[in-house]
Write a structure and sequence with these properties.
Elements: E1 6-16, E2 27-32, E3 44-48, E4 53-54, E5 56-63, E6 69-76, E7 86-92, E8 106-108, E9 111-115, E10 119-124, E11 132-135, E12 140-150, E13 153-154, E14 159-169, E15 172-183, E16 192-201, E17 206-215, E18 234-236, E19 238-245, H1 247-250, E20 253-259, E21 266-268, E22 271-276, E23 303-307, E24 310-314, E25 320-325, E26 334-338, E27 348-353, E28 357-362, E29 369-371, E30 376-385, E31 398-402, H2 404-410, H3 423-427, H4 439-446, H5 482-493, H6 496-513, H7 572-581, H8 584-602, H9 607-615, H10 634-649, H11 653-664, H12 681-684, H13 687-705, H14 709-728, H15 745-763, H16 769-787, H17 795-803, H18 833-849, H19 853-864
Length: 866
């Protein structure tokens, strides 16, 4: 190796999940890099332990303030062994690598041609079909299809857009990627779109795909209730995709092989069909699966299979099916297909006979599927063409473990200082992946399975005190950013189970929990739905907050209606998911939620906003547009975090200036904290969440500009509040009488105080010991209390621990350098009535400049709707 070459090794270990087959799927994973290490991804090469290069496409995802690469995405197809993990590193060459010519995919009239070794794939750009397999002699051997049935009618799906690229490394092409966008016709006059993504191996033999069905309509949600059966839901019978052999190919059909989960490979000569009707678990007919009328219509427990007319049944299938041809002249002698997470995301079906091999992520099971307005569902599938290898194991894939020493050397602000985490507190989270109260076990408790439910968490804390016989269904919907907690814990531990939980939940949040529409009120569009209502079963609200079947007045302050709200906006987990996987949906989720929460607090520059500003000027949870002040609560904290997450992807100074503006109009280093009435915990405990967001801003601003005026304002505001906390704060449960529900969720929330006070000790220019001592007291209290608490396994408590694990003990040394002393700040000025009137007039002028009468009437209609 040249001495001019910079080398970091290892960065990760790659291991097959359950064995390996000949046609290895693409592995795509993100890794961080230390600040200043590399500025151009064209210098980077992925290598193994012997320093041999691995053909990989390298792309920068995020950059440090000095524009060096902070996160890069690696896309490769390495040769993996089931015996030992593959340790990989990165080398940086002094010379830029010449880009490989990206002209592999060619456009033709009505289709894209993807070249393969023995055959080509033709992907239609006019109709939504899978792909056609065409021999090198130009003869079609298989025709792809993608069919969606509604009311016994096949709905056409013309393509309205497409994009493609080839992923190349130094040694040539790795994969070809094609994405097409289609709109269903005849779909009950609803705006229903389909996205089909294909990732094709360089030789054309393996195709990994994703298909997304998206209802872009807005729900009616009368009186703020969001039940199944909404008039704008899309109802359909089934969706299937697959290949049909040409007449010449089908004449040589030999049958094939099938593999049911936990079973030996069975051959068939005529046909095979495997249908998963339910999860097969103990609670397979749980009320989580109610339809719009409140009835569970699952047909039977588990799966049924028919192999050459012989019936089989079982609980959980993870099948593979292979179609075989006896024509040696055929370019494709076999086709193998499967759906990952087949039983987990039921109902699904695989079938094959002389005429077809079909994968159905939505199987026809005798009752309609309901895709709610603003919902999307994404399912993966895989086809292997011409493989003579053994059928792959029921769970294939690759686990990636980023090297902990490398991760520590990167010092990533969003992950915190791993060296300050208290191992005893961290041990309290082990029950999340082990034992009878793990998140995996909780899936089984209410059968959190099926295409709509899989990935979400059971909100078991809401069952505290419940004594009914029927399963109590409550969905968590990513409160306090469980995605972030899971993925961060995965990075620290390397345990793939944490990644599995985070990945499954991220996918669920992106498809189901985020209201994916632009047709509702601006403060709802692309917002995140609250968890299902406190202390009440979800009924027919599914994963949306409020149901008509839930009683009103269930507890003090019960809203019984509403929609997505800014105090439930969590983006950091989706950001980390994007950085670890390169999933563009997660990146879009970060930006979409950021834009949504900005509309919640800033408005949309409409005339309706002016009226709302006047009506809501005294609401505690919204910005007062007349005086420009933001509330000191978790909604604004979420707003700040969303902007900081966007800043990781787009390090624009403008984003930090927006955060600075929010902070300057939320709190002040010389304000009278007594006027905040922080002793009223139920009303004002959120201030600690806001201070945590401020602490994150301090790290970002200091790394960018050093001790700027904006940094010093925020730093001194933090210390002002921290001084108050040292004198006045105590564990919440020390005074249970001031709490409506004094449970140990409050104990977990105490960990936030420890975090804030440790950060105050980090940034103070004077003696940090008073802050550290008080922080230690809170961390010790949380640890001692929850170690002895039988409800510590509750979902909300576990997620709060995971989110707030760093720092929870004092750092070995402060590395911020010499910080300026605290300034002498004058008290914040009061906004006079005349200034408030001026602010209102400016809002009015901005709205008038962009007024569109049609949009204003639509917004008014939505606002006045019941």
């Amino acid at each position: 190796m040249s001495s001019a070459r910079l080398r970091t090794f290892p960065v990760a270990e790659l291991s097959p999940a359950h064995g390996v087959h000949a046609e290895q799927g693409a592995v795509q994973f993100g890794v961080p890099l230390p600040q200043g290490w590399c500025t151009d991804e064209r210098r980077l090469t992925l290598v193994d332990e012997r320093d041999d290069p691995i053909n990989a496409d390298v792309r920068a995802l995020a950059r440090w303030p000095d524009q060096s690469i902070q996160w890069c995405l690696l896309h490769c197809r390495p040769s993996l062994s089931a015996d030992s993990p593959l340790r990989v590193g990165l080398v940086q060459d002094p010379q830029l690598r010449d880009p490989v010519q990206d002209d592999f995919i060619s456009e033709h009239a009505g289709y894209l041609r993807i070249p393969g070794t023995r055959f080509d794939l033709h992907v239609s750009t006019q109709r939504l079909a899978l792909f056609d397999v065409v021999g090198k002699d130009g003869q079609s051997e298989f025709e792809g299809f993608c069919e969606l049935h509604a009311a016994e009618e096949l709905l056409p799906a013309p393509v309205y857009g497409y994009e493609y690229r080839s992923r190349c490394g130094p040694q040539g092409v790795i994969s070809h990627e094609v994405t097409r966008y289609a709109r269903l016709e005849g779909s009950q006059d609803l705006d229903i779109s389909v996205r089909c993504e294909l990732c094709v191996s360089g030789d054309g033999r393996r195709i990994d795909g994703r298909i997304s069905l998206h209802n872009k309509e807005a729900a009616a949600h009368p009186n703020g209730l969001w039940d199944l059966g909404d008039p704008y839901s899309f109802r359909f019978s089934g969706l299937s995709t697959g290949l049909r052999p040409s007449s010449a190919t089908s004449k040589n059909f030999l049958g094939g092989d099938s593999l049911l989960s936990g079973s030996a490979v069975q051959t068939f000569s005529q046909s095979v069909r495997v249908t998963q009707y339910s999860s097969g678990g103990e609670n397979w007919d749980s009320p989580v699966h109610v339809a719009a009328d409140g009835v569970v219509r699952l047909r039977n427990r588990g799966f049924e299979a028919s192999i050459d007319g012989q019936r089989h049944s079982g609980l959980r299938a993870q099948p593979r099916v292979r179609w075989r041809s006896g024509d040696r002249a055929c370019s494709v002698e076999s086709v193998t297909g499967w759906l990952p997470q087949f039983w987990e995301q039921f109902p699904g079906e695989l079938k094959s006979d002389r005429e077809t091999i079909s994968l159905s992520p939505f199987a026809v099971v005798g009752s309609e599927h309901e895709l709610q307005a603003g919902e999307r569902k994404t399912r993966s599938f895989t086809f292997l063409l011409g493989s003579d290898a053994a059928l792959p194991e029921p769970a294939d894939g690759t686990t990636v473990k980023i090297d902990p020493d490398h991760l520590r050397s990167c010092r990533l602000p969003m992950l915190g200082d791993f060296d300050t985490i208290d191992p005893d507190l961290e041990a309290l989270t082990v029950s999340g992946i082990e034992g009878d109260e793990s998140f995996f076990a909780k899936r089984e408790a209410i059968d959190e399975f099926g295409w709509r439910h899989f990935g979400d968490l059971y909100a078991d804390h809401e069952t505290d005190g419940y004594e009914g016989e029927r399963s109590f269904v409550s969905h968590y919907n990513n409160q306090y950013d469980a995605v972030y907690g899971f993925l961060r814990r995965y990075l620290r531990s390397g345990d793939p189970r944490w990644f599995e939980l985070g990945h499954d939940l991220a996918r669920h949040v992106l498809d189901i929990d985020i209201y994916q529409t632009t047709k509702d009120r601006p403060e709802y569009n692309h917002g995140l739905f609250w968890h299902t209502d406190h202390y009440l079963p979800a009924e027919t609200s599914s994963h949306r907050s409020y149901s008509k079947d839930q009683r009103s007045g269930a507890y003090e302050g019960h809203a019984h209606g509403g929609g997505p709200g800014g105090q439930h906006c969590y983006t950091t987990g989706l950001l980390l998911h994007y950085l670890l996987t390169g999933d563009e949906d997660s990146k879009a989720g970060v930006y979409g939620l950021s834009e949504w929460i900005s509309r919640v607090y800033e408005g949309d520059e409409r005339l309706v906003d002016v009226a709302l500003a006047l009506r809501n000027r005294k609401r505690r949870d919204l910005k007062n547009h007349l005086n420009g002040r933001y509330p000191l609560d978790r909604g604004v904290a979420n707003y700040i975090n969303a902007l900081l997450d966007c800043h990781v992807l787009d390090p624009s100074p403008y984003i930090l200036r927006r955060v600075e503006h929010i902070l300057r109009n939320t709190l002040h280093p010389a304000e009278n904290i007594a006027e905040r009435d922080l002793g009223d915990v139920e009303a004002n405990w959120y201030y600690v969440v806001l201070l945590q967001a401020l602490c994150r801003y301090l790290h970002t601003e200091h790394a960018k500009t050093g001790a700027s005026d904006a940094f010093l304002f925020a730093r001194d505001a933090l210390l002002h509040y921290a001084d108050w906390m040292v004198e006045n704060e105590h564990p919440y449960l020390d005074r249970p009488e001031i709490l409506e529900f004094p449970n140990h969720t409050w104990t977990a929330q105490d960990l936030r105080k420890a975090n804030v006070l440790f950060e105050a000790g980090r940034w103070t220019p004077s003696d940090p010991e008073p802050y550290y001592a008080k922080a230690d007291s809170f961390a010790s209290h949380v640890r001692a209390t929850l170690e002895a608490e039988p409800t510590c396994h509750y979902t909300r408590i576990q997620v709060l621990l995971l989110q707030n694990l760093a720092p929870t003990r004092r750092p070995c040394g402060r590395d911020t350098g010499r910080l300026p002393a605290r300034a002498s700040w004058t008290a914040p000025r009061t906004i006079s009535p005349l200034q408030q009137l001026g602010n209102l007039l400016r809002m009015l002028l901005r709205a008038l400049r962009g007024t569109r009468p049609g949009d204003e009437l639509k917004s008014l209609g939505r606002l006045l709707a019941p």
